[in-house]
What we know:
With 360 residues, the chain is an alpha+beta fold. It is built from twelve helices and ten strands. 3,4-dihydroxyphenylalanine binds at residues 187, 189, 229, 267, 270, 303-305, 326-328.
Amino acid sequence: xxxxxxxxxGMELSETLEQLKADTLASLxxxxxLAALDAIEAGAVGRESPIAxxxxxxGKMDAAQRRDAGRMINEVxxxxxxxVAVRKDQLASEARAAAIAAEGIDVTIDYVSVPSGRIxxxxxxxxxxxxxxxxxxxxxxxxxxxxxxxxxxDALNTPPSHPSRLESDxxxxxxxxxxxxxxxxxxxxxxxxxxxxxxxPPVYIVAPGKTYRNDTVDAxxxxxxxxxxxxxxDESITFSDLKGTxxxxxxxxxxxxxxxxxxxxxxPFTEPSAELDVSCFNCDGGESSCRVCRGxxxxxxxxxxxxxxxxxxxxxxxxxxxxxxxxxxxxERLAMARHGIDSIRHFIDNDLRFLEQFPG
Length: 360
Ligand code: DAH
């Protein structure tokens, strides 16, 4: 075997490998991205690379030369691969930094939660009252807030001379005859007349909505407030039905031990009429210092009575074949009693510290 040639080959191989290493390491910095780096790596140590060619040449060498040459090739290949790996890490972290900068997201910034709204406590009470009556077989009806004097007063047996029709009490939109004189309804009772005109008996409805009165704001009055009206008309409805229905409502709304009492009263559209009080759910009538009933033991809650035959006449019902009861309640008043709220003004102040106490 010609050792001279082999030594020369060995020299040439080591020079070739050193040159390859030097060129490759120098070119790594010029690789701008991972794809360019992959190309350089393939060119140095891949299938068609000088390293691969050198490995293929090992077969022609004798054992001793093959061992030395093989070690040399492996060392150079390893050094190149290690340098490529370092550069690869560098490019990857540069790419990550560029992506973060481009997306503009700073993951260290606190998550800003957007508070969700909630249903106003007045609307919560409306929903709850309607649900109770729906459970008793009632439908929900509605009527206009700008109402004629006819539906608001005349159809409800309230004569033109009645003091509630004065401008000191009622806000007028347009003057004229009762049929076209427009006002902001002072109660939800006109929905009774409108509904009966449109529907034959039997009638079982509740009618929630906004009502208006010429009142100055104080702890118990708002010029715009809410009422819920109720009306039941059928054959042979009696005062006992009225009492049983409202007692059941009071138990469901205020609590199962709630008692009711009825005091004679006057409303133009019911005869007889009554005010319904509920026993104080806070002290049950036992405490002179109670903040809810102020020691009275009862809370005045609902106006009610048997529908006056003149109302049936006005809407075209035959008073000799049907009877009925009606009732009306102030929603803010219900909410104040239920939650121990001391001023009706809280409902319109839009103070989140108040509103957030009623998550619903
Ligand atoms: N509309 C009356 C008011 O605003 C409340 C009322 C009383 C309604 C008796 C009724 C009723 O239906 O029968 O004060």
